[in-house]
Specification:
two-stranded antiparallel ribbon, alpha+beta, Transferase(Phosphotransferase), domain 1, 9 strands, Phosphorylase Kinase, domain 1, 8 helices, five-stranded antiparallel β-sheet
């Protein structure tokens, strides 16, 4: 299957595009080592090109499914991984392929607050399910618990300290992504996983974009984005404007509001909500908890700055991280 993203984009300079990549190739970079010297036991620990051996990949439990496809818990060379099979979209096959390749925008990146890609393939063993699959992505297993589940399905609410700790993790991941000119464009509690150690990791990059250095446009100057979740989508995107890194800052503001409020951002008709956000600068309401302490007021100030209508008035991820650290010191 041809990729809308040239394979040479992922290849290190030392490895020409004509090199045979085998049935499945990891998009991670080869760090000056030959393929023959990579030991299978270290396949998850090395950022290297490797050929996926299907006999070593075992599916265990179905973790989730939806319009995007299926996510399984499994093992690869005996180590626990998550396996995502991207489903073909009958109505829009190009969108399905874009979602698959967008996931690989972070394939070469390693950060403690980003779900790491181990390998990916558009070639799968012959089976009935393969006909409905664009490709398979093997990722680190970050657990089953999402931030959405923690907010809405746990009896105990998140304390201010917990909200700031999670916020630090999320913004740290965003800052790292933005330093590599990658915008997530679908940041929300459901796409943030919480590990057993209590660390947040950003996942699901199917809507992400790699922006050119020094700008917010694609090479042809027409990067526009319509995917993602409307409740967390920045107003400039709702209007069909260009995507910038500041769109993620807006999404973070809605996410932080959810952590504190334990409520849904909006109710009512989807189109009415989108119109009100754009035309009337509508935002979720601040409840009493935001005014009961200096910490609550500080978090309210951060949220208000992050969901400003004008992208240029929102802080960068780096500035936001500093603001969150200042609040944490007060605890």
């Amino acid at each position: 299957m041809p990729s809308p993203i040239p394979i040479s984009r992922f290849l290190p300079r030392a490895l020409p595009p004509t090199t045979s990549l085998g049935p499945c190739s990891s998009p991670n970079q080869l760090q000056g080592r030959r393929l023959s010297c990579i030991k299978p036991r270290r396949v998850l620990r090395r950022r290297s090109w490797c050929t996926v051996i299907w006999d070593e990949l075992k599916l265990l439990d179905l973790v989730g499914s939806g319009g995007f496809g299926w996510v399984y818990k499994g093992t690869y060379y005996g180590q626990t991984v998550a396996i995502k099979k991207v489903r073909k979209c009958v109505k829009n096959k190009l969108a399905a392929r874009h979602s698959f390749w967008a996931e690989l925008n972070v394939a070469h990146l390693v950060h403690e607050n980003i779900v790491r890609v181990v390998a990916a393939t558009t070639s799968v063993p012959a089976d009935p399910e393969a006909e409905d699959c664009v490709g398979t992505i093997i990722m680190e297993y970050a657990g089953r618990t999402s931030l959405d589940h923690r907010i809405y399905n746990c009896t105990e609410p998140l304390e201010m300290r917990g909200c700031l700790t999670f916020s630090h993790d999320i913004v740290s991941g965003l800052s790292f992504l933005h330093s590599h000119h990658i915008v997530h464009l679908d940041l929300k509690p459901a796409n943030i996983l919480i590990t057993e150690a209590g660390r947040c990791k950003i996942g699901d990059f199917g809507c992400s974009h790699k922006l050119p250095i020094g700008g917010d446009l694609t090479p042809n100057g027409q990067l526009r984005h319509l995917a993602g979740t409307y409740t967390h989508r920045a107003p400039e995107l709702l209007k069909g404007g260009r995507a910038t890194l500041k769109a993620d800052i807006y999404s973070f503001a809605i996410t932080l509001w959810q952590m504190i409020s334990r409520d849904q951002p909006y109710s009512g008709d989807r189109q009415c909500v989108m119109y009100a956000v754009v035309a009337y600068n509508r935002r979720p309401s601040f409840s009493r908890i935001f005014n009961e302490s200096s910490m609550g007021r500080g978090i309210r100030s951060i949220i208000s700055n992050c969901w400003e209508c004008e992208p240029n008035r929102r802080p960068s991820a780096k500035q936001l991280l500093e603001n969150i650290d200042c609040l944490k010191v007060q605890l």
